[in-house]
Amino acid sequence: MAAQLQQLIAGAARPLPEISDPSFGAQFDSFAGPKVVLLGDGSHGTSEFYSARAEITKRLIDKHGYNMVAVEADWPDAESIDRYVRQRPGPKANIGGTRIEPFKRFPTWMWRNREMQELVEWMRDRNTKVPPEKRAGFYGLDLYSMGSSIRAVIDYLDRVDPDMGKAARRRYGCLEPWVDDPSSYGLASLRGMENCETQVIDMLRELLERRLEYSREEHDGEEFHSSEQNAFIVRDAEKYYKAMYYSSASSWTLRDTHMFETLRRLFHHKPEDTKAIIWAHNSHCGDARYTSMGIRRNEVNIGQLCRENFGRENVAILGCGTHTGTVAAAHEWDDDMEVMAVNPSRADSWEYLAHNTGIPSFVLDLRPKEADPVLRSAIAAETNRLERFIGVIYRPDTERISHYSQAYLHNQFDGYIWFDVTQAVRPLERIQPKTPLSSDETYPFGY
């Protein structure tokens, strides 16, 4: 059975040119058109995954009318980039009187890398050539920025309604002792020492009640919308850090639900014809119902939620995979980045089948209306086939239990992008920074 599947994959795989080839992005034109295109990666530290997604993103923006890039990153950090690429007026990376540098929280290399910087500069350059309403924006979907988001809401209210700014300080004061180590808030809440839920919800409710009043002086309501998103982050982060101590499945689902709702609020704020490109890990992008996440742990993710809410025909999900090479990762959370060797893929994995095609890089179309039905049936029959997931932590010594999970590739993704041998992403710094960057680095990744 595996031999037949191997032949079917090799026959259906469409070889790709070099990523640097001007025609690379055009290889994915058939996936353009849906309201949302999700671009997943098999690790958070692989250069080819970033560069390939960057070229696909450029093509989707330039030729297919996509105007939103939403990434697995925190809203305040991403907003610094958005102000840069769209040349938005207003407070530039200044929260609570402190000038911030984007993406300085662990893992810095995930977004502070050369591949990402090149895309950001391309977006800024391209945006200067089109009217403001046609400019592509850059947005963060994640919820780890509780402290930064609190400061952003207070900073906004201090400008538009100082009395409400004082109220925000009082309500968010409940969380202030925990902003530097928010996971400790969850533990304190579990032990009955603290629970800030009521204050956080009341703050969000009052902010939303004043939407029209606060937005009246803005021509497009950008600053209120950002403040609103930050207030939702505080609410959901408060829930998330409590959920961490009850159930990993519920905290995962809460996080991905937050990412989806952030995306939905962005769509509500933007014109009706807005189309989004999402960058996140395969574990977030690939439909969770067809992996162990959904099958065994009842977790949901943003890919699943997009399909369920927008319809499968309005969503395209592309994942990336590799056989071996190097990856930028850490051994433990908050450790410095290392360039590690990636173990060759296991014989019972989808990666191994892709490797055995002998094709250095390819895209495999898995959509029901495009793929060979025999191929899809053969994939469906592989009930124990595994997929590798490397995040910001890589533990090659325990790779099977740490990084492999069951997946039905044909329904998890609409397309699978393969690079047989890959290299580590090019970070702007290798040491987890403790102090501000030197002044000779350039905005948006340094000042």
Textual characterization of the structure:
The protein is an alpha/beta fold. The protein has a domain at 1-61 and 275-425: EreA-like (biosynthetic domain) (EreA/ChaN-like  fold, 3-Layer(aba) Sandwich), CATH 3.40.1660.10. 43% of the residues lie in helices and 16% in strands. It contains 18 helices and 13 strands. The chain has helices at 2-12, 47-64, 75-86, 114-127, 146-160, 162-172, 182-190, 197-209, 211-215, 222-243, 248-269, 282-285, 292-295, 302-310, 350-355, 373-380, 399-403, 409-412, and strands at residues 14-15, 36-41, 68-74, 94-95, 98-99, 137-142, 276-281, 315-329, 338-342, 361-365, 386-388, 404-406, 415-422. Strands 1, 2, 3, 6, 7, 8, 9, 10 and 13 form a nine-stranded mixed β-sheet that branches. Strands 4-5 form a two-stranded antiparallel sheet. A hairpin with an 8-residue loop joins β8 (315-329) and β9 (338-342). α10 (222-243) packs antiparallel against α11 (248-269). The protein is globular and about 70 Å long. Mean pLDDT is 91; it is low at 92-97 and 435-447.
